[in-house]
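Shape matters. Shown next:

___
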Amino acid sequence: MIYWGLVVAQLVTFAAYAVVTAGAALLQKKANTLTLFDGLDPAALEATIEVYNAVFQSTTYIIPYPLQPQYQFQYQWWIIEYQFFLFAITAVLTLFPAFIPRGRIVALTFLATALVLVMDNVNALFFLLRNPTAIAVFEEYRIATAQAGLIMVGVGNGLTIIFMGLYEHDAAETSAPHTHDMKSQA
């Protein structure tokens, strides 16, 4: 039963990566084509950059690059890559459960660090979803798609932590080879 919970957790996580990647791609596409600063006189440009920076610096996890918006979501892409690396580890352990006793501590350690990154970014995107300036710049559906994917990744990570942490492999299969008593050899 616990093993099947781990399998379901991996399926949820896999689906979550598809959604979060789509959301990040939607945000990135908008950032790559952002015309917010085009054609502004110097005073208007300065005022617009000030508001833009104030909004995105408030999230702490989305660094504003007003004149180079293609770099706006580099941290989010890094988190997605990190999560994918982690998914590769947990998927291999799930497919080959005999390796769980040896690999569990590594996987759970990385999962714990990844969950913190996800939760911080969920918080940042909640801020953007409540901010009219962010919605006007990046559009609500783009932010909401990335947000939904991050929430799904968090759920998948949480389920993986629970089920991998509870998983016990048959001790007879994973114990060290039996050593013979010296007296029995004499």
Observations:
- The chain has eight helices and no strands.
- The helical segments are 2-32, 42-57, 74-95, 100-129, 132-138, 140-166, 171-174, 182-185.
- Residues 23 and 145 are 5 Å apart (CA to CA).
- The two ends are 46 Å apart (CA to CA).
